[in-house]
Amino acid sequence: MGHKNNYPALKIRYLIPLFFLIGALFQSCIPNKKLVYLQDKEKKSASQTSGIQEYQARTANYKVQHGDVLNIKVLSQDPASVQPFNIDAQSTNAQMQIGVPQLFLTGYSVDAKGNIVFPLVGEIYVKDKTIMEITEILSEKIDKYATNATVKIKLVSFKITVLGEVKNAGVYYIYNERASILEVLGYAGDMTDLGNRHKIKLIRTIDNTVQVSNLDITNRTLIEGNNFFLHPNDVLYIEPVKAKNFRLNLPTINIIVTAITTLLIIYNIFGK
Hints:
3 domains; 272 residues; wza like fold; 9 helices; alpha+beta; three-stranded antiparallel sheet; 23% strand; Outer membrane lipoprotein wza fold like
């Protein structure tokens, strides 16, 4: 009879660890709204959300900074006339096989004063100028030495570092004049499920100043902001969600729950 009277209390004691574990599991769940990119936070009718939606992105041209490296080629129908400007002149097939390290070695670095030194022309101030502006300045100077020459300039130091909760963290070189945050995340294999899409740190260095901005990629207003398109040498750090701590500690929690359950069993068997 004594064992029957203690049965409800015994059952409750067994259920306490189970309720604790279920509660912790619910806390570790990640709602769908925290995973979807570029959501429209404003509630709209079905007719408003159907079809194509347009947003005005800010696409200001990048202005060259100290430390940037420019790859400059001068082309002409008479290659001999522009050969002095191409100090690393190689065959077309060889140029196609040049890697990033070689481009850095043969490129023109912007010094602390904002200048590059170009053959025959000398120093050219390029800091805070766009690639188009630099092309026009250099073309005008080269016209004094060669006629009908074409200047091609590429920024070869456009790299982005991606850290934190992404599938493939690392440094990525961008072979384009611009890249959006979505493209860069694509290079890194996208965020993991444990990446906090509300807290992405953008670290940007301008001269000797380091700027840190917090981005929310779930909000579509990011498109219309200043940071949707990244700058060379930007760093993205994706913070983990709180659920990651629980998942990392889950083995320890399982051991604790198992120990509590075992102690309760032992107590009910031998405690009376």
